Every structure is written in structure tokens, then in C-alpha cells.
Amino acid sequence: MKDWNKEVGYLENTRKRMWNDDYFEFLVKQVWKIDHPVKILDVGCGYGDLGTRLLPIVPDGSSYKGIDIAEDLIEKAREDFKETKYNTDFEVINLLEYEPTDKYDIVICQSVLRHIPEVKEVLQKMIDSAVTGGLVICIEPSRRMENAGLYIDDKDFDVFENDEFLKERWQQEYSNGGRDFLVGLKIPGYMNQLGLKNVSVRVNDYVDFISKSGTENYKEGKESFMHNHGIDEKYSDATNYFSARCHLISFGVKS
Ligand SMILES: C[S@@+](CC[C@H](N)C(=O)[O-])C[C@H]1O[C@@H](n2cnc3c(N)ncnc32)[C@H](O)[C@@H]1O
Question: Please, are residues 137 and 32 in contact by the beta-carbon 8 Å criterion?
Fold first, then answer.
């Protein structure tokens, strides 16, 4: 299993380029209609990225608990939230050993099930952690959709060449540990099978657009873009890099 304790830098970099704040707020207020104080559980919370997004926009009186296997990430979360006004709690927990007892109005995860072979088992635990009428939300990437939305402004760019990179990397991940790069597309079906009601799916509207002529920290953004998408060095001097992230946001209600 990947050691996430070592990935703070990666997580910080990628979380900067993951959401449009207005779209996240739209989900919370217009789609999920969170209009009264809620108890939130973030499953595989890392250092609490979702807490920093949710807590300022959910009603006052809400609380946020994050659980994760990575001790260093949980320690960072405790440190980061220590001086804030928010009601937070963090605990080191291996999801595979987690026995839900407390109940939450919102049970959410972001980019977690994509790293865990036991997807349905963990999703069931998420459902068991929700109150009746509570919302279970899974935000997971769909790299195939993301790859289809990849473009580099260079006369030699071949839109198909990165398909091979994707295929190799993900086949390797799957055979080395059962991590499923299609998980985002499968979760709504799993949610139905496990009894959630009103299951719906959205697509995150964030587009990573890195432009020589307009992007702050262009060099850093471009390097991280090239690394994440396995882009060939021959494209290191392009004018624009474009990727629609297409994270899938699946959610359903516990009945
Ligand atoms: C890509 S990170 C996402 C972190 C956070 N949700 C975010 O979006 O910033 C995946 C997280 O899943 C956690 N994780 C993986 N397997 C786990 C397990 N068996 N139990 C608990 N957490 C786990 C990792 O420690 C890591 O923090």
C-alpha cells in the first residue's frame, strides 16, 4: 500500500487545482441543500482538505470529523485546525478495520475509494455511518474521462498518445494491488446495490488550464501537470496545457 504520510506535498499541489470554489458552494447549497447544522464524517480525510472547503460554507454549529490511516496527515490536520473556530476531530483509523458506531448527517470521501481494492466494503461502512436520511457522497476521479479532456497546444501534439500511458499505468496499478481506475464510474451502481436512494452523479467542472501568458506560477503548474499526466518532455515548451479533471461526484440518501 502507498505510504500517504510521505505525500503531503503532492496532496497540497493537487488540491490547489481541483475545485472551483463557486461550484463546490453550488453543490453544498443548491444540490445537497445543506441548510441546517450538520455532523460530517470525512472518510480518508488526509489532512482535511474537504474540511477546509466545507466548514466555511455549511451552517454554523456544524461539526467535522476526519479519519485516515496516515498518522502524519492526521497530525497535520489537527495542527491546521487547532486555531480555527471550527468544531473538528481527527482520528487515525484503518478503514478496513473501522467499525462504525457514531452516526453522521453527511458521510463523504474524496479520492479514497480509487486507492482501495475493497471499495464496496468501505462504501458499506460509509452507509452504516450515516443517519437515516443522511447523505453519502463519494468524489472520485475518472482518469479516462480526464484523459479525453487532455490537450496541449503544440503543433505535434497527438491526442491519442497519452492513452497508452494511461493504460499502462492503470493496468499496473490494478495488477499490483487491485486499485481500480474506473471506480468513479462504478460507484453510482454500487450505491444503488447497497440500498442508497435518489442516487445522482455530477461532474466537477474544474479545468486545469496552464498558460505561458497568463498562469501564475506557470513553471510549477506546468511541471506538476506534465508529471501527473505522464507528458513527454518534448512538450515542455508548449504555450498552453489543458485538462478537464472530470471528477465524478456520486451521492445518495440513506433510507
Ligand atoms: C488521495 S488521498 C486523499 C486525501 C483527502 N481525502 C484529500 O482529498 O485530500 C487518499 C487518502 O486515503 C487514505 N487511505 C488509504 N487507504 C486507507 C485505509 N485503509 N484506511 C484509512 N485511510 C486510507 C490515505 O491515507 C490518504 O490520505
Answer: yes
Q: Are 59 and 38 in contact (CB under 8 A)?
A: yes
Atom of ligand 1 nearest to the CA of 95: 20
Superfamily of domain 4-142+179-206+246-253: Vaccinia Virus protein VP39 (3.40.50.150)
Which of 112, 121, 181 is the pocket-test mutation for ligand 1 (most atoms within 8 Å of CB)? 112
Residue 49, ligand 1, Cβ within 6 A: yes
189-226 pLDDT, tens per residue?
999 999 999 999 999 999 999 999 988 888 888 988 88
Ligand 1 site, residue 139, Cβ cutoff 6 A: no
Q: What is the pLDDT of residue 1?
A: 73
Residue of 3, 4, 42, 140 best suited for mutating to test ligand 1, as the one with most atoms within 8 Å of CB = 4
pLDDT tens for each residue of 6-53: 999 889 988 988 999 999 999 999 999 999 999 999 999 999 999 999
Query: For 236-246, what is each residue's pLDDT tens digit?
Result: 999 999 999 89
Contacts by residues 225-232 (CB-CB < 8 Å, ≥ 24 positions apart):
228/14, 229/147, 229/150, 229/162, 229/165, 230/162, 230/165, 230/166, 230/169, 231/152, 231/162, 232/161
The overall pTM is greater than 0.90: yes
Q: pLDDT, tens digit, for every residue of 54-84? A: 999 999 999 999 999 999 999 999 999 999 9
